[in-house]
Structure formats: structure tokens, C-alpha cells
Amino acid sequence: MTAAREYEFTRRDFDFLRRLSNQHTGIVVTDDKFDMFYSRLARRVRALGLGSFAEYCNYLEHPDSDTEMVELVNALTTNLTSFFRENHHFEFLAGTALPDLVQRNRSSRKVRIWSAGCSTGEEPYSLSMVLQESSSLLNGWDVKLLASDIDSNVLRQAQAGVYPLARVEGIEKARLKRFFQKGSGSNTGKARVRSELRRAMEFRQVNLMNKLDVETQDIIFCRNVIIYFDKETKRKLLDKFAESLAPNGYLFVGHSESLHQVTDRFQLIGNTVYRKVR
Ligand SMILES: C[S@@+](CC[C@H](N)C(=O)[O-])C[C@H]1O[C@@H](n2cnc3c(N)ncnc32)[C@H](O)[C@@H]1O
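Above: the input entities. Below: the C-alpha cells describing the complete assembly.
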């Protein structure tokens, strides 16, 4: 225990909390996250009026602790994201994946895209902008975009679609003008996505550790999520993604994520872009 800490926090408490969060989310927490755990969870100890982390661990063992599990998960996820992060993926989508799908799905005229681990919404809204810009290809098509995350706080922000100006300033001027409006009332000084971006979108809380109850997808963006999982957890999730994708469906992962030696159900076809092969 560090003298400056408000609550006692032992290695045992840390091990208990990281094991519990790993069971629930798949996220592997390394030893160096000890201080981060303390700073993020001391708020919860305080909010619950408890005297120590040992009491907090006991509290989480209680059968009625489901709501606190949500708080625990929300406090521990890493939600870093931005609009058009890894822009080459959005260029690949517009220039290669969508034209290919328009050919392959010409009889159903349906496209389904899933942003799995969407955080505060920048990724699915970027996808939605590309879809709007591809309207000449998709005119009259049935297009749906699913945006999901385990963290209920970030999902709420994604659904609100309101961003501080600093978060949108990297977006091209023409896109900013077309797809955002100035916030008013309590959102003055902020940017709000226009309703056309949300029209085809559904927001849903999905824990990727659970059975994935989604309709068949053509494209899955799951970027900067599996990096926190161990190999076996990744393999199981990639199996579920393969089951959720249509034949030849696309999977986009983050720049430092690789499926190499994890699964052979996908083939690398571009820079961190995969295609389902079986
Ligand atoms: C670093 S963010 C990535 C956001 C976005 N995909 C991007 O690349 O900019 C990772 C997101 O994965 C979510 N996440 C972590 N574990 C998850 C799980 N088991 N099920 C669903 N989402 C999870 C986190 O809540 C977080 O919002």
C-alpha cells in the first residue's frame, strides 16, 4: 500500500479484480496496470461508501453484484478512438470492398456492416459517412450498420453522436460540412452528427465473449479490440466472426493486430484487411 493512497489496495485485490474482469471481458491485464486499476476503481469504492478494496472485492462476489460488474467493466476498458482512424481501411472500403459487394450481393441488394467494439462512435460514424458517399453504388439498397460495445457508457455517447470540436477537427472540411451540425443548448460549442448518418444504424450492447446473436454480416470492423485478448480468446472470437460473416466476408483489424498463427479461417488480402475463406 502506498502512503498517499486513500484506500488500501493489495496485490491480492488486484489479482482478484483482474481475474474477474478477464473472465467477463477477455481482456488480459498485465502487472503494470496496478496503478491504473487503483485510480480507475477508487471512484467506485468511494461511490459505494466502502472502506477498502478488500470490501469492494467482497461486494463483487455478492450474487446481486451485476450492476457493479457493468461499472467495473466500464471503468477498465480502453476506449481510445478517432474519426477515420487508420484511414486506409475507409479507402479500401470505398474503393474495393463496397464495389465487390455490390457485384456479389446484386440479387439480394443487401449490405450489412458491423463495428464491433465501436467505443464512442467515431468508427461507425466514419463508416456511415463512407456509405453515404457511396450512395450512387448503393442507391435503393438495404444497408444496415450495427455499432456495438461492451461498455454501456461509451455506447451511450456513441448513440448521442455529439463531439467536442477538438475531436472532429481532423475530418475533411467537406465531410464536416455535410455530415455535422453545430450543437445547440447544452451542446453549444460541440458538433453533432446529422440524422442521415444514423438512419441505417443500430447501437447495441454486445459482449464479444458471449454467443454472437447478429444477422449475417458482409463486413466486420473489429479494430484495436483483440489486442487485449490472449491467443485462445482471439481464436474463439475469430471463429465466431467467421460464423457471423457471409462467404468471402471482410474482416478489418487494427494496425498492430494479426491473425497469423491464430486462425486459418481468414486470408490476408490487404493492409490488416482479411477475407473469410472458410
Ligand atoms: C480501443 S477501443 C477501439 C475502438 C475502435 N474500434 C477503434 O479502433 O478506434 C476498444 C473497444 O473495445 C471494447 N471492448 C473490449 N472488450 C470487449 C468485449 N469483450 N466485448 C465488446 N467490446 C469490448 C472496449 O469497451 C472499447 O470501447
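Note for the figure: The chain has two domains: 11-76, 88-276.
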